[in-house]
Amino acid sequence: RQSSVPFCSHARKLLYPLAPHLGQHRCSSIYEPDYLEVGKSKIPLHNPLNLQIRGYDFPVLENFQRYVHKIAKNMDIEIEDGWAVPPQYLQVQRFKPQSTVIDSEYKMAVYERNIQVVELPSTVGEIFFEVLQTALPEGVTLTVHEHTEEQEENRYIPDNELIELKTKLEELGGPSKKK
Question: Within a 10 A sphere around the Cβ of 140, how many other Cβ atoms?
């Protein structure tokens, strides 16, 4: 019998590339069938995450967004969605030293892009974020946070003309109903 044990393990090593399930023990419960465990990942997955990229220079921001997509594709990370937010305009004033006299005025735009990553394995996430942080260009900020409904609402631009027309219609007595 002892001579058959080395042969069995040797045969298992040779056959493993052809049939990896050979020789494995079943680890299923009495109450749950095996096929329920097949699709589940053993590694914990993150909830949907939003990568928010903000910067003052539009071309640099667009190139970094392209880089994030490329890195995610190379690491087999699934990107579900990506969207742009309208720019925010800032009025910056520089004063003369020790006075309230304006020396110069600047109008700056802050651009924002968002990338939504889903089913990110926790083992890959740390490496992914470290690569992005290392490659982050100067003047660009990257923040990662879980996806919320508030962020979903912020991504849509309100139609001011439509809102104005609806308020005028309500002031006039609402929509007319014809039968």
Answer: 19
Sign of dihedral through CA atoms 2, 8, 10, 13?
negative
Residue 9 phi, psi dihedral angles, 5° rounding: -70, -35
End-to-end CA distance of the chain: 92
pLDDT, tens digit, 9 for 90 and up, residues 57-91: 999 999 999 999 999 999 999 999 888 888 999 99
Distances, alpha carbon 101 to alpha carbons 47, 66, 96, in Å: 51, 43, 6
Write the pLDDT tens digit of every residue in 92-141. 999 999 888 889 999 999 999 999 999 888 888 899 999 999 999 999 99
77 touches 32 (CB < 8 A): no
pTM of the model: 0.62
Whether the Cβ atoms of residue 64 and residue 93 lie closer than 8 Å to each other: no
Question: What three-state secondary structure class fits 39?
Answer: coil
Exposed / middle / buried, residue 51 (Cβ in 10 Å: 0-12, 13-18, 19+): buried
